[in-house]
Each structure stands twice: as C-alpha cells, then as structure tokens.
Amino acid sequence: MEFRDLRRQYQYNKQNIDYAIWKVLDTSHFIQGKQVTELEEKLADYVNVKHCVTCANGTDALQLALMTWNIGEGDAVFVPDFTFFSSGEVVSAVGASPIFVDVDIDTYNIDSEKLETAIKTVLQKGAMIPKAIIAVDLFGLPANYPELRHIADQYGLYLLEDAAQGFGGALGGRKACSFGDISTTSFFPAKPLGCYGDGGAIFTDNDEWAMLIRSLAVHGKGLSKYDNVRIGMNSRLDTLQAAILLEKFSVFIEKELRESNKLADFYTEQLKDIVKTPVVKSGFYSSWAQYTIQLEDSQVRQNVQEILKAQEIPTAVYYPKPLHMQQAFRKYEYLDNQYEVTNGLCSKVLSLPFHPYMEIEEILAVTRTIKKILV
Ligand SMILES: *Cc1c(COP(=O)(O)O)cnc(C)c1O
C-alpha cells in the first residue's frame, strides 16, 4: 500500500495529462506559456479572489507575501508551533522574528487565545513590532478565520493564510486561500492539489500587492524583465507544471475533493471509538492533506507504526518536532512550557495512508490492524 498513491492518480488521468504535456512540448513555450495565465485565472475564479500569481513553490509564495509587506528586521510574525518548517523559516529568511504560538488540540490549528497573549507579550516587551499572523490550514482544515480576522484587525496585523495543505478546503461558504490579506498555497506533488515537481501560488484582492508580487517574483522587474526596480527573486511556475495542474484541477474539484471527504468519513466511522480521530467543526470543510489520528503516547504510536509497517502499511509522523525546538531557531530562546499542546501532539500524532483513490478495502486493512492492536 502507498501512503499517498500518486501513481494510481496518474493512471486514472493519464490520457489527459499526457496530452497536456505533449502540447507544451509541441509549442515549446516553457516559461510563461498561456497555460500559466489560464491556470491563474481558473484558480482565482474558484477561490473567488481577484488575483492569483503562480510561483515556484509554497515557501517562495510565503516569502513573497512577507516581502510585499516589507516585513524584516525588528518585526514579529506569529506562526503556529505545529506546522511544516517553511511557515516559520520564511519569517527568519526576511530578517524578522517568528513568534511561535501553541495550537488547538482538536483542530491542530493556531490557538486564538494563546495568539492574543503572545501579541500582548511582544507589545509589552517593546523590543519588536508585531506585524503579521501566519495562519496554517493544517492537514487540509482551514484555521479559525473569524477569530483570527478579529484579532488581526484589533492589533492592526496582516493576516497571511498558509494554505499549502489547505487548497480546496472551505469555511462558512468561503474557500481556503481567500481568508488572508494574502493567501498562499503549494503544488508540491503530495499536497491536495499537486503538480509533478515544485509549484506554488499567491492570492490577494489587493491590486497594488498583486503587482508587487508579480514584480518580486521576476527579479523585481519594472516595465520589462530588463528594467529592474527592486530586489526580488526568480520564482515562476513553469508552463509544463501549469498544463499538468489545469488537468489535475478539473479532477480535483469534480471528483477528488468529494472522494477524499467520503473516505475520511469512512476512516472516522471505523476508528472513532478507539483513537482520537480528526475533528471537523460545523461549517468547516477539509481538503484532507492528511488523515491524522492521536494515540495515547509515543510508545503506543511506535508499536502501532511497527505493526502496520510489518503488514506493508506505511504511516508518517507529521510532525515529530515542534518548531520552537528546531535547532535553526535556537537563537530566539523560546520558553518550552508555553507549548504544552504541540509538545504532546508531536509524540502522539500518526498520519495514516490517505488519498482520493484509496479503496474501501485498503482502509479496512488499516483500521482492522489498528483495532487488533488497541482493542
Ligand atoms: C508544504 C508546505 C509549505 C511549503 O511548500 P513547498 O511548495 O514545499 O515550498 C509551506 N507550509 C506548509 C504548511 C506546508 O505543508
């Protein structure tokens, strides 16, 4: 069994994808071909945001957002402690300080109350200026944007939605990638909407920021590529990836999202009485980047992982280490006792094989084994 079976997904959609790739090769317009613009228009329309700018990956997308807001030295940016490294890395990359905030034990997303406490602490100390909140839609579930928007407005902070795992999710009738002042996603192959290499996108309703992002992503271009008015980076989505994404996007919205939700419900039905299963609160819709359960402790988790592995069922731990404990961030000297929930989650979470092309029989093979171990 595969953890996320990208080969099976390709086999189901092979004809269309092969043809799309061949068309790019045939025209040989590899950079900024018409598929790139077409994809940006389709994604912006789907998310219901005015501008979509594609770029090279989800990490660049986040960094471009921070650069657009001119965030740097002396600025504080609030980031959940339980997420992929990128969410915090980009803050340090632009010279600002990531302030990690503990997460909610049910949703795995940033804890609004602890966020407000962290903002107040930074204001009291007075050494840094709070500038932005990076909210992550972890495992596909949108963060609590009504609460986060309220806090961002109250303290005059930018809200950046890191929807690298969240594309396709929704909350109260609005789509993920529409909740931030700027929102970003990733098309890394294993993300809910993945391409066949690296890719990313940035969403915003703000005309001026969209123009700045387009400039920053292509060497700070002015009127042309050889007129450079600011320091930027080289971060583009290539035409091949855009062509692949156009095909995969149709299948994603027409079929995969619905299938993922059906399969996640089935998993939960099978497991809800024996382990802590994912919590999707009323009004929220997940795109299921991962299906993650919580076990009693690291010992039980290791045992479950080993027995599943012996049956050729792969699992993964997202994430084994809180960001505040990463060596790369050691200079910021975080207080470990402020991250009780994340510290616990890192020893208890286990992500199970999951993708929209899983067979019911495969899920049953996983859940039967887990039941045998734990009941
Ligand atoms: C994958 C991921 C990123 C980075 O995306 P890349 O395309 O790999 O650069 C950022 N944030 C989160 C939460 C992610 O899961």
Topology of this protein?
Layout (H helix, E strand, L loop, with lengths): L5 H22 L6 H14 L3 E5 L2 H11 L6 E6 L5 H8 L3 E5 L10 H14 L3 E8 L8 H11 L2 E5 L7 E2 L2 E2 L6 E5 L13 E5 L2 H10 L22 H33 L12 E2 L5 E4 L3 H13 L29 H9 E4 L7 H15 L1
Parallel strand pairs: 2-3, 2-4, 4-5, 5-8
Antiparallel strand pairs: 1-9, 6-7, 6-10, 8-9, 11-12
Bound molecules: pyridoxal-5'-phosphate.
Question: What would a concise description of this structure say?
Answer:
Helix content is 43%, strand content 14%. It has 375 residues and is an alpha/beta fold.
- The span between the termini is 23 Å
Helix count, per DSSP? 11
Strand content: 5-15%
Structural class based on helices, strands and sheet pairing:
alpha/beta
Radius of gyration: 21 Å
Task: Identify low-pLDDT runs.
Answer: none
Please give a structural write-up.
The chain has about 375 residues and is α/β, with parallel strands linked by helices. The chain contains eleven helices and twelve strands. The protein has helices at about 5-25, 35-45, 60-70, 85-95, 110-125, 145-155, 205-215, 240-270, 300-310, 340-350, 360-375; strands spanning about 50-55, 75-80, 95-100, 130-135, 160, 170, 175, 180-185, 200-205, 285, 290-295, 350. The chain has a seven-stranded mixed β-sheet with strand order 1-9-8-5-4-2-3, sandwiched between helices. β2 (about 75-80), α4 and β3 (about 95-100) form a beta-alpha-beta unit. α3 packs across α7. The longest helix has about 35 residues, at about 240-270. Bound molecules: pyridoxal-5'-phosphate. The site of pyridoxal-5'-phosphate has 15 residues, from α3 and α4.
